[in-house]
User: Fold this.
Amino acid sequence: MRLQSAIVSVGLVTAFAVSVAENVADRYDPTWASLDTRPLPNWFDESKLGIFIHWGVYSEIGYNSEWVWWYWKGWREPIVMRYFAENFPPDMTYADFAATFRAAFFDPVEWADLIAKSGAKYVVLTAKHHEGYTLWPSNHSFNWNSMDVGPHRDLVGDLAAAIRSRTDLHFGLYHSLFEWFHPLYLQDKAAGWATQDFVRSKTLPELYEIVNSYKPEVIWSDGDWEAPFTYWNSTEFLAWLYNDSYVNAYFHGLSFRGEKIVFFIVKWKAG
Assistant:
């Protein structure tokens, strides 16, 4: 799949601070008061243009948006339901589209060169959207990832390698905290967020996995809005990121529907 065929959004980035102190605390507590003392990295503050790429099974469908599964089976929008009824067999499921999502024309070198020529300073790829399909061979998404079904390759790893070997772009990853139809998520929701089975077996293991495997300079986290930040263990994850992962991280938290977890910006230690 060529870059022009993916769902690409280009965002203008405004400066959040005039200057940023480079000295940071040795350790951070898992509280917003402590975590919010992390300064914004200079590179992000100075970057006015970034490219955000939506790419997943929904791209194979090529209709509506990355939310097409929810409009079809969640909200059951009449126009979307009619589209599927008129164009696909009645027993067609969303998962069936993954088999033909092969990324046959995906050339990470072509993508990297084109993005660099655009003048953007960073790029963020949707490693996993709300559909739950991961663009990397996740150990926590059995048979619903780009290695097991579809392209049979590590799309995140291939793009990261091309970006880093050919450009000076900052590479980031989007990761959806929740998944629309995951049974463990729906179970936790039905329990009023008193249980965290989905978070402990899916969300957090995936976040640790992409941090340790790909070292993204931006972690764009989304899909938190139905549950409180305590359900997601947001502050515990960030404290781990800042204190115990292989990063020297700078954080900027944006408000999203009353919660304080949207994206994290990190700067990796040398070595």
